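dumping this here so i dont lose it
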């Protein structure tokens, strides 16, 4: 099958990982141009993969004028995503973006509308979904391996050092830039949308961020198809991107409480714990996670190609991602206004 032609925007920072490990090695795409406003990043990453100098550009407009392409990937700060999406769709190209999908929910909705009007795919690289433990945890919950799900909790504590980057000075760095992964995973693993959010963000006295890297949040997850529409289950989130001490993994530490036991995912892997009342006769079952052919960005890039080829939206399509980004936006509103926020309302559903 012929490869699709791809332009990558943003080749510094996380974009350098994309170009060195994925887009330059993809079995689905030929990288036909790279774009970055920084000469240092443009030529540093270009030289690292021996990319032709005449295919390196400072702007997406220039790249589109000089090369033929089928799709655009942007690994740039969120404020750039909408302008890049507009250019891609105006030129009849498909579009994939790093998370978060955009800098604001209104811009995210506009991007999804533009893709629909253009008849093109829009995909968000929610790469955390494509992890063998994530797949196994989703399977266990769907099979009710520990019984009916009643509630859950997720911890995330990592002292992230983003000195000199936009994350150091952005508002709500954990909630907006990182928690999008975890909220998307809550939706994916449980099969439920996040319908209501109550959030509190804060800045510890020792924090090196300009704004608030700490977060306490309660999510209410919606009903499955066979359940009464009024049925909601609570799922809580606690995190701090300036937490000194013992760290979680980037995936976080999970507990999903079920009717017949609890399912745990932590650095030791996945396990199901069961016991009787007063913790009598406890048992623990370690769950093995099977192999996964494609993980992380490699999986999202392949799924992008498949969406283009088949015309079917990817699992992490822009339309689906509005529910994840909408939950993040609801969290920001809740933290600012100190009230619960319904996600459907801000999505206009």
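and the seq i came up w/
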């Amino acid at each position: 099958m012929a490869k699709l032609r791809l332009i990558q925007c943003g080749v510094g920072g996380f974009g350098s990982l994309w170009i060195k490990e994925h887009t330059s090695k993809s079995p689905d795409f030929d990288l036909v141009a790279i774009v970055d406003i920084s000469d240092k990043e443009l030529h540093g990453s270009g030289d690292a993969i021996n990319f032709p100098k005449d295919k390196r550009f400072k702007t997406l407009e220039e790249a589109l004028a000089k090369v033929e392409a089928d799709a655009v990937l942007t690994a740039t700060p969120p404020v750039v995503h909408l302008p890049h999406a507009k250019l891609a769709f105006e030129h009849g190209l498909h579009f994939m973006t790093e998370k978060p999908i955009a800098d604001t929910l209104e811009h995210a909705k506009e991007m999804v509308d533009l893709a629909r009007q253009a008849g093109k795919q829009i995909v968000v690289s929610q790469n955390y979904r494509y992890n063998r433990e994530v797949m196994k945890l989703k399977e266990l919950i769907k099979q009710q391996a520990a019984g009916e799900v009643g509630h859950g909790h997720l911890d995330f504590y990592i002292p992230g050092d983003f000195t000199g980057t936009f994350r150091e000075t952005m508002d709500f760095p954990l909630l907006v830039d990182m928690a999008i992964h975890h909220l998307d995973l809550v939706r994916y693993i449980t099969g439920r949308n996040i319908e209501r959010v109550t959030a509190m963000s804060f800045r510890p006295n020792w924090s090196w961020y300009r704004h608030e890297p700490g977060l306490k949040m309660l999510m209410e997850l919606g009903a499955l198809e066979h359940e009464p529409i009024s049925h909601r289950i609570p799922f809580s989130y606690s995190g701090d991107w300036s937490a000194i001490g013992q760290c979680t993994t980037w995936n976080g530490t999970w507990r999903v409480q079920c009717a017949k036991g609890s399912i745990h995912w932590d650095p030791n892997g996945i396990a199901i714990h069961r016991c009787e009342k007063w913790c009598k006769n406890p048992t623990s079952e370690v769950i093995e996670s099977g192999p996964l052919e494609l993980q992380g960005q490699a999986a999202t890039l392949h799924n992008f190609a498949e969406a283009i080829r088949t015309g079917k939206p990817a699992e992490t399509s822009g339309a689906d991602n509005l529910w994840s980004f909408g939950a993040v936006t609801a969290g920001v509103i809740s933290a600012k206004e100190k009230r619960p926020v319904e996600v459907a309302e801000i999505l206009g559903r």
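The longest helix spans residues 318-337.
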